[in-house]
Design goal:
mainly alpha, Glycosyltransferase, 3-stranded antiparallel β-sheet, 15 strands, globular
Length: 409
């Protein structure tokens, strides 16, 4: 049966209905497709406010992988063959120009087909693993070998068996840097879950559980029970971390990130379906509850971007992916725990997002606001500020829909 509906309102749809979620998913896809397809290979990556392509020459590895993910989720629910064709198109480009054939990793950025940054990031490899896994899940069987290849190369060069987590970056010769990150491990965990879902091979599930346990229990135990972003080589929390590269700021923010707390909560809820454990649900609730309590803006609405170790907000910016990941996780918790308080959070997040962040004219969502909901930039994707072709939107909606399907089963 359907999730319990909100009282009807003339100014808003029924956010809890599957029909609305599927329509919203379609609207997101319509913003990018078909004009995101570059006939010469891969996808265009940079889109103005109205969806027009304003940069046809810059390619970012993680954006290409996220496009594949988005098309795979859309194909699963919307069943349009052109989406499957787009997945194949994207995988070919990821395997071709974006792959560093000298070391088996990937170029981070291409300009006019030439690599300008070939640093190796676990974050990037995690998205390659995720893209291949989702391709396999929709029937692109040749991607299964690419999926295992990516896992094996990460295992060989980046996995720290002593700590049961992945290092975050390496140079072209696979010399690993001392910096450690939860974020690369979060997205690797997400990719490993997708690999398990696509293949049912236990190796991927076991590693996903290991990462989740070590980050959400051991590492979080150093940091008030929450997931801190930055660590030293020995996995001691680095509270004084500062970015050496400005271009990485969106991937390595300072402070507790509410968006990452709720993403880990989403992964824990999912893992509890495949490898039930006593701690998954309580920890997921804790991460979500604290994140929303500390980050909710009672004056202007929405979730702030970051709060510091004392619990005070240190960055009031409102970013689209934080809101949508949180509402997706709220729906999953509402169904999984049968607690109405999470539907109330879901409604509150949608109320804010529908009013401020959803672009009702052109489609997709606005990306980043200040506290008063004033846009910092108009573009939907912008180098150094947002490289997401609605991967977060599709992923959050997918999580909600999957839990709704389990409820109906």
């Amino acid at each position: 049966m359907e999730s319990p509906s909100k009282k009807s309102r003339t100014d808003q749809p029924d956010f809890r209905s599957k029909k609305f979620i599927l329509e919203h998913m379609q609207r997101s896809m319509d913003f990018f497709h078909p004009h995101c397809i570059d006939p010469s290979g891969g996808f265009y990556h940079f889109f103005a406010d109205d969806g027009s392509v304003y940069d046809k020459t810059t390619r970012v590895m993680v954006t290409e992988a996220r496009f594949i993910f988005s098309f795979a989720i859309a194909y699963e629910y919307l069943k349009k063959e052109e989406y499957k064709t787009a997945i194949i198109h994207g995988v070919e480009f990821l395997r071709g120009p974006l792959r560093n054939h000298e070391n088996g990793a990937y170029h981070w950025v291409l300009e006019n087909g030439k690599p300008t940054n070939s640093k190796i990031y676990t974050y990037g490899l995690a998205f390659a693993l995720l893209a291949y896994s989702k391709a396999v899940a929709v029937g692109i069987t040749e991607a299964k070998a690419y999926m295992r290849e990516t896992f094996d190369i990460m295992e060989k060069h980046l996995f720290d068996a002593k700590h049961g987590l992945y290092a975050e970056e390496a140079d072209a010769n696979w010399v690993v840097d001392s910096y450690r990150s939860e974020s690369g491990n979060l997205h690797t965990c997400e990719a490993l879950i997708a690999a398990y879902e696509a293949t049912k091979e236990q190796i991927y599930l076991d590693r996903a559980v290991l990462l989740a346990d070590n980050i959400c229990n051991r590492q979080a135990g150093l940091c008030k029970g929450l997931v801190w972003e930055h660590y030293k080589e020995d996995w001691a929390a680095d509270f004084d971390f500062k970015n050496a590269e400005g271009a990485l700021t969106i991937f390595r923010p300072w402070g507790f990130q509410p968006g990452h707390q709720v993403e880990w909560a989403r992964l824990l809820i999912t893992l509890n379906r495949y490898a039930p454990a006593i701690w998954f649900e309580p920890k997921a609730r804790f991460l979500f509850d604290v994140a929303v309590k500390q980050a909710w803006d009672h004056e202007h609405g929405g979730l702030a971007y970051s709060f510091d170790p004392s619990g005070d907000v240190c960055d009031w910016d409102k970013i689209f992916w934080v809101q949508v990941e949180s509402l997706g996780t709220a729906a999953m918790l509402a169904i999984g725990t049968k607690r109405d308080e999470y539907w109330k959070e879901y409604d509150r997040l949608w109320d804010y997002s529908w009013k401020h962040m959803v672009d009702h004219k052109h489609g997709s969502w606005y990306r980043r606001f200040n506290r008063q909901a004033e846009k910092y930039f108009a573009e939907k994707t912008k180098a150094g500020l947002c490289v997401d072709p609605d991967y977060h939107i599709l992923g959050a909606l997918d999580g909600a829909l999957k839990m709704m399907a389990l409820q109906d089963a």
